[in-house]
Each structure stands twice: as structure tokens, then as C-alpha cells.
Amino acid sequence: MLRFGFNQFGGPDVFTELTAAIPEPKQNQVQIKVAAFGINPYDLRLRQGDFADSRPLPMPIVPGTELAGTVTAVGSDVTDYQIGDRVLNYRPRGAYSQFVTASTTKIAHLPADMSETFAAALPNVGIAAFGVLQLLQVQPGKTIVIEGASGGVGSILVQAAKYLGLRVIATCSSANHELVLDLGADEVGLYDRENVGARFANMGDYVVNATAGGHDNNAGIWMRRPNGVYVTLNEPDVRPEHDPDFHVLGEQRVDTQAAFAFLFKLFNHADLQVHLARTLPFSVTGVITAHTELAQHHPAGKYVCTATE
């Protein structure tokens, strides 16, 4: 089988085709023929060597934390999945492959009308969004402010918050104004045209900083009400002292199966949307193109390499 990985750190052109034997599932695993895989900013950092010292890995490295495909073999202890089942998978790495094996705790059956391309874009951002909601412990009728609402995690949070009965204030760039309104936001602030921190000062019972890199010029702090709960996706330069309602995503473990169940509920009952910036071929060329464009200013949405379109 083919995998798309690299033998040295560097730019997108370090990717190459790698050949490997098709992996066989262990007792509690399934084998999956991959139909599509998502590409995320973490993959770019892995390729660049940002984790080479903190989390060293042997070469070659095959990135990819999310995929969708069809079960082609099952381990001897597996009873909930059969050959031919369509599944998605959230994993540490290795999704840029024609075949993978995965534990049944990290996969889920796809809803009948969910495409593999859509599903491959969902695990990374969807599980992160579910983790944010766990930290917030939201109550219907309250107001949530979502910064970076057009991004992968932010866009799911807007939809989830509306489904859960919250009033949603969203911030984004003016280029993504209509997109965020279409997701269901009640009010939208455009950070490139106005001071959103001043406009929505002290309005958020919950504030989520889902901006790229967490850089919001402290607008989220201004928009948070006294005793409001604040969650950021990125570790801040300085954490407020003695603030039990300030959280960083990753403080607690996220139950993958519970996250999948919630996301499928949104898909089935709230028409969950995952905006795709671009779908690309299931090839090393597709991977290189995605990594190149993700490193630049690109349209809002996810990049997916797919063999199904």
C-alpha cells in the first residue's frame, strides 16, 4: 500500500510516497481502507519539526489525525463492526495512508447520509469543540462569545451553541461575515473593521478564543462578564492567577465516543455543517498542495484529500 510521509523535516516538498505492507488488525482493532483524510495545522507543525525535541518520532513520519473509510477486516474480539461498515477514525497520526488499523474506541459508524469526505473533516475540530463545551458546562439562555467563529472549531461551536439554546455572539474577519451568519450566529463582530472587545464588552457568560494561535489582543477578556467562563484553544503567554473559570483546552481528557455521539446528533438534528475550503486528490501531490496552501492565507474551511470525488 501507499502512505504519504517524509524522511526529513522541512517544507511541503519533503513529502514522498512510501510503500508498506497492509497492516493487520489486532484483537480489538479493525482494518480500514481509507477513502479520505483531513489535513490540519498540527500536521504542518509535525512536518516542520516543531515537536522534534519534545516528542521525537522515528522516520519516516506519516501525519494525519482524522480519516474516514470502510472496514476491510476485524480483529477476533471485535463484535460491533463488520466488514463493509463505513467509519471515521481519530488517531495520533498515520491517516495519510491507503489502509490503517484502529482501535474500536477511536472509530464510529458513519450516519447513512454522511459522506466520507465530510466525515474526514470532522474528528479533529469536532472533538476539540466538544472538549470546549465540556469545560464551559453551558446553560440554555446564556450568551456565548466565540472568537474565530469561521475557523474549524469556531464554526462547529457556533452551531452547537445554537442547538444547545445559547445566544451566540461571533467574531470573524469581514471576508467571513456571511458564512458565520449562515452558521446561526445572532450577532457578528468584524475584528478587521471594529473594536469587537469594546462593542461586546462584558456580554459573554462564556467566551471561547478559537482564533489562530490565540492572538486576539485580549478582546476575549474584555467581552467576558464578571464570573464568566473563558476557554482558549492555545496556551496563553500569561495565565491569570487564581481564576478557576479560565481554562485551556486539553486540561481534561475528552471522551472520543461521547464526542462522536454529540457530533452525529448535531448532524442528524441540526444539519451540522463543516465548511470545506478545498478537496484534493488522494495523492502525494494533493498532500503537498494542501500543506502549501494551509501555510498561506487561505479561504475558511478544512482541507481534505479524498479518493471518493
From TrEMBL:
Organism: Lacticaseibacillus sharpeae JCM 1186 = DSM 20505
Residue span, Enoyl reductase (ER) domain: 10-305
Matching InterPro entries: ADH-like_C (IPR013149), ADH-like_N (IPR013154), ER (IPR020843), GroES-like_sf (IPR011032), NAD(P)-bd_dom_sf (IPR036291), Zinc-ADH_QOR/CCCR (IPR051603)
A GO term for molecular function: oxidoreductase activity
Protein name stated in the entry: NADPH quinone reductase
Keywords annotated in UniProt: NADP
Coiled-coil annotated spans: none
Family matches, as SUPFAM superfamilies: GroES-like, NAD(P)-binding Rossmann-fold domains
